[in-house]
Amino acid sequence: MALNDPSLLNSLNVPNMLDATSFEDDLSYSLYHKSCQDVEGIIYRKVKEWVKKDPTLAPSLIRLHFHDCVVRGCDASILLDHSGSERSANVSKSLRGFQVIDDINAELEKKCPKKVSCADILMTAARDATVLAGGPFWAIHFGRKDGRVSLAKEAATVPMGR
User: Fold this and answer.
1) What is the CATH number that goes with domain 35-155?
2) pTM for the predicted model, two decimal places
3) Catalytic residue (choose from 65, 67, 82, 141)
4) d(CA 88, CA 82)
5) Which residues on neighbouring strands pair with residue 142, listed in sequence order?
6) 3-state SS class at 139
7) Is 89 exposed, middle or buried (0-12, 13-18, 19+ CB in 10 A)?
8) Alpha carbon distance 66, 68 (integer Å)
9) Domain boundary assignment for the chain
10) pLDDT, tens digit, 9 for 90 and up, residues 8-47
11) Is 33 marked active-site?
12) Sorting pLDDT into bands at 50, 70 and 90, what band is 75?
């Protein structure tokens, strides 16, 4: 079978672009432009402030975001703190950066209450941590919904480096 054979894509069960657009329709680069102006600036300044004090927080925020996305998608469920949550799982014990996200959320709640999801905050903080660590910048679609389910047993699916 040739690599450019269309049947190869069908056999791999790769979604076509029409399938992806329904997801993209729910997200927007400009979601907060009117409802919470300067959301990206606020997040960037807070991440920069924390990383300036402790440069190891940059990779910690990236790792925190990774752990969040592996379990149930990028829904900030890793931030939920209760008995039996992802955050309480053994694989999550060494995660750091929760205070950074809490600080950003508190600042955004003062400026525009109940507007910005924690999932968008965590996504943007990880992007900004990447930039501050010397990595690339990328634009973020906003509009992620915060997860309400967080189970420690599901955190076991996070790949662990050795």
Assistant:
1) 1.10.520.10
2) 0.82
3) 67
4) 7
5) 28
6) coil
7) buried
8) 5
9) 35-155
10) 444 444 444 444 444 446 888 888 888 899 999 999 999 9
11) no
12) very high
